[in-house]
Specification:
Elements (H helix, E strand, L loop, with lengths): L1 H17 L6 H37 L3 H16 L2 H12 L11 H4 L20 H8 L3 H25 L19 H13 L2 H33 L4 H26 L1 H21 L8 H28 L4 H23 L4 H30 L4 H4 L1 H9 L1
């Protein structure tokens, strides 16, 4: 059941947070594995719940399912993206430096930005990098325990609220799809692989789904390390991420309304342009201890792009794969997770400028795959976006 899956998988997140009280290989690795095993079915269940409920409500209201699916995903991600607000208010408060912060030297700043590298080759730099300089200050263990304790409480509250307050899909006559009922884990795995191999849309949207993981991983790991921690200190991460998350949350909601009026293609194009523009500028810009306002601008633009990818790719899956939510969203989670994995592996292996060039190329190729789907939809339906071009007319006809 979808509801039970959400509850059980969210409780498994508490194990990873609890492992932070004793961070060793023997605790973090098993907890990370359990977290990964829980994340995939949890996010797939969430997508299934929103898609099926959106379809059900659309039938009741007599409107296109795409309208309600987009609206549901927009509301969900509007709430979800506030994690960056509440979480980083806590982080910024708990990790606030007790003493004076020492800014990096010019030599240390030269290792920031596009020149940043997590593990520089031995002997490449004789000077201490700004990132290493920040790490030397360290974080007090009491702060770590306080942070983990606060997060652990919320990790327990979340699934408890779902268990007691969330209605099961069966209450609305939208239980598991008949063709998916009774399927074992191996059967669903086979259905997921088969869906990818035999569906052109899935193959074409796969690169953009990977991009969703890549861009989140790059921003959460590489951008924060190279452009925030390195030049202006770890204590500033929270404030910048609050701005990023606030933008993400607001536009996650607004893009559902905007897409209703302009269609998918302009919204997806805007996100790609914002992401591409930020990457190109950051490749040429060297961060300093001054002009911190630029970092907030970059975060706002990246947050607007992420709001599109998180809400509209999810909704797009629900629209182009009707009745196949389980294998479709399992593919979504698989490829997005692969994007996260690739982002962390690449960021730890190469200098940041090379990683950013890879991102630019991947985004361009991914967007082309998406546009091919839109063109195929145009040939099938006679217009690029059913949501934009016929949504209001359909509503009027059905209401009459």
């Amino acid at each position: 059941k979808v509801k039970l899956c959400l509850v059980v998988c969210q409780f498994m997140y508490t194990l990873y947070i609890a492992a932070q009280f004793y961070p060793r290989w023997g605790t973090l690795i098993p907890a990370s594995i359990l977290l990964g095993l829980a994340a995939a079915p949890m996010w797939s269940a969430k997508c299934t719940y929103l898609s099926q409920m959106g379809t059900y409500v659309a039938k009741v209201k007599g409107i296109q399912p795409e309208i309600m699916i987009n609206r549901f995903f927009g509301i969900f991600f509007c709430m979800f993206q506030t994690w960056g607000i509440w979480g980083n208010i806590v982080t910024a408060t708990v990790l606030a430096p007790e003493g004076d912060w020492t800014p990096p030297t010019e030599a240390e700043l030269a290792t920031c930005g596009a020149n940043f590298m997590v593990n520089p080759p031995a002997g490449e730099n004789d000077t201490v990098t700004a990132a290493e300089s920040q790490e030397e200050g360290g974080v007090d263990q009491k702060q770590v325990y306080m942070l983990a304790g606060i997060y652990l409480v919320f990790a327990i509250i979340g699934p408890s609220v779902i268990f007691f307050l969330l209605d099961p899909l069966s209450k609305y006559g939208e239980d598991e799809r008949k063709e998916q009922k009774g399927k074992s884990g191996m059967q669903l795995l086979f259905a997921t692989v088969s869906h990818f191999l035999h569906n052109k849309y899935q193959m074409l949207i796969m690169p953009l789904t990977i991009w969703s993981g890549l861009e989140q991983g790059w921003f959460g790991a590489s951008f924060t390390a190279a452009y925030i921690t390195c030049p202006i200190g770890v204590h500033n991460i929270g404030y910048i991420i609050i701005v990023y998350a606030s933008t993400d949350a607001i536009f996650s909601f607004l893009f559902g309304w905007i897409l209703k009026r302009v269609g998918r293609i302009p919204v997806f194009t805007m996100a790609a342009v914002f992401n591409m523009g930020v990457l190109v500028v950051l490749l040429k810009w060297t961060p300093t201890t001054e002009h911190q306002e630029y970092l907030y601008i970059f975060s706002i633009l990246w947050g607007m792009g992420d709001a599109v990818w998180q809400t509209q790719i999810n909704a797009f899956y629900g629209v182009i794969f009707p009745g196949k939510e389980e294998p479709a969203f399992s593919n979504y989670r698989l490829w997005e997770s692969l994007g996260f994995l690739a982002a962390y592996l690449i960021s730890n292996s190469v200098k940041l400028d090379l990683f950013m060039y890879i991102l630019v190329g991947w985004l361009a190729a991914s967007f082309m795959g998406y546009m091919v789907i839109e063109f195929m939809e145009y040939k099938k339906h006679g217009h690029f976006s059913a949501y934009c071009c016929s949504g209001h007319k359909t509503v009027k006809v059905e209401q009459q």
